[in-house]
Amino acid sequence: MSQMNRRRALQLLAALGTTGLAAACGSGTDTADEAEPGSPIKIGLIVPGSGPNKVIGDEITNGFQTFLTLNEGQLGGHPVTVVPAEEGDTAKTGQAAVDRLINEGVLALTGVVSSTVMLGIRDAVEQARIPLIGSNASPISLQSVVYIWRTSYVLNEPGEALGEYLRQTLDESSRIAIFGTKGQSSQDVIDGLRRGYEQGGRRLTEDPIFTEDFANPGKGVYTGSIRKALDRRPGPDAVFCHYTGAQAVQFIKQLYAAGYRGPVYAPGFLTEGTVLSQLDDGEKGEERALIQNNPIRTALNYSADLNNTANRVFASAYRKTYNVSPTTFAMASYDAAQVLDKAIRLVGGNPTPQQVNLALGKIGQVDSPRGAWQFNQSRTPQQKWYLRKVQLDGRMLANVVINELATLG
């Protein structure tokens, strides 16, 4: 937010009622206030418009738009047109989106939910020499890239942060049952768990149980896999899992229905978005009581309750517009807009994609809602990871930060 001028800060004060914002953000001059905007630019936004990932795509869209709203529809002093393109869920559909946006003459690309799509478009983006600031998909195997940057995370990092925490808090004899969907994403997460946990002679003794990657799983689809883990003796002392969205809702419901009563650990995607509202059956409900008595702890790079100026501005504006708290997906997209703003401003004049790409390596520290971070050599964030616990916040279940876990990246 350091690029805001005084006039915009005052507009935010009026719109959001945020105290102290002018002192934190108002660093412009009267001359800058009167400056004419630069030439219009286009940014390509690759997101799914349908299917199970649509909800993440919507949050990515909303996060990017929140930054534009707070900055008069501009990036780096240039009026912006956002050009959306359908991501789909395959390399072929991702390639079609990239081709169309290149033909549209975009200055940069952003978005991308699916790791399959991200890997599928890698070569096309590199060959086109147009920067892509990915705001979600971040497989470990995406290496040696020049034009692809990520404002989210690398998928092994939440597992690694939790692995270190579990190594320090669980007894060496503890049994951890591990679950995830078939596919590279869960494998990356579990590889991170091993990296964090298997130190000083510690070993994960259980083989992971991989379930089918159902878009909309029905009741009972996970029961057999859960029973397989619970029926072993002795029973598990903890469960580690990697699910999102509808899969997360059904896995947690079926885990409790199978009789598990113990802690659950997971990357924060398990309880992001609408998952908690779908699990919360009210003050006298059985599921709420189970969650309160059997803690769900997650590791994530963001929580909407983080107490810093950048997050107060972002979360307030996001809630005001969309009537929900922002997720890590929205936050990463907001930061994608923020780093583009910084890079385009560094270039000045009439920026080209290649100039913006070079400038992305020079932006330094980012004042983000997640806390300060910066790009590392792999073009991913070096950032803090937080331990969150699902608990009541007022009358509703919420992800509440209880401490920091690690700085990774």
UniProtKB/TrEMBL annotation:
InterPro entries: BCAA_transport, Leu-bd, Peripla_BP_I, TAT_signal. Transmembrane segments: none annotated. Residues 1-24 form the signal peptide. SUPFAM superfamilies: Periplasmic binding protein-like I (SSF53822). Keywords: Signal. Residues 40-393 form the Leucine-binding protein domain. Belongs to the leucine-binding protein family. This is ABC transporter substrate-binding protein.
